[in-house]
Amino acid sequence: MIRVAFASVGRVRVDQHFGAAEGFVVYDVAPDKATLVGVGAFAAEAMDGNEGKLAAKVDFLAGCAAVYVLAIGASAIQQLVARGIQPIRVTEVDAIDALLADLGRALREGGVAWIERALARAGRSDARFAAMADEGWTG
């Protein structure tokens, strides 16, 4: 399973520029289903080069493997990638349901590089916590 966000004001279509996004919807996506797990709302922002407005959005997306956007600037890309979040730009206003179906298919069939990396990172994290649990508590 992976967690994916979509920049969307109406929660139906990817229709927002990352820096000016007023909303994000977040889903946990498995091969056979997608579950809405969060919605974030942000004040309307001008696309004015003010980098400070990006931090709250990047923080909100912590734990996501990817974020789908209509457009995104270089600084936002850099900040997301540094946090392990793959920015994905759609070429037109795409329906979130259709993108979720595509993600489920990609999880079943494999072969999408960023999804493979996200699954590998999640596996390493799960293995690390399992190893700590196996060690037990001493004190």
UniProtKB/TrEMBL annotation:
Q: Mind telling me which residue stretches traverse the membrane in this protein?
A: none
InterPro entries, per the entry: Di-Nase_FeMo-co_biosynth, DiNase_FeMo-co_biosyn_sf, NifX-like, NifX/NifY_domain
Presence of the UniProt keyword Oxidoreductase in the record: no
Which key words are in the record?
Nitrogen fixation
Q: Does the keyword Cytoplasm apply?
A: no
Pfam family, any one: Nitro_FeMo-Co
Listed Gene3D superfamilies: Dinitrogenase iron-molybdenum cofactor biosynthesis domain
What the entry lists under CDD domains is as follows: NifX (cd00853)
* Residues covered by the Dinitrogenase iron-molybdenum cofactor biosynthesis domain: 13-102
Q: Which family, according to the similarity comment?
A: Belongs to the NifX/NifY family.
List the PANTHER family hit by this protein, alphabetically. IRON-MOLIBDENUM COFACTOR PROCESSING PROTEIN, IRON-MOLYBDENUM PROTEIN-RELATED-RELATED
According to UniProt, the name of this protein is Nitrogen fixation protein NifX
Q: Which organism is it from?
A: Azospira restricta
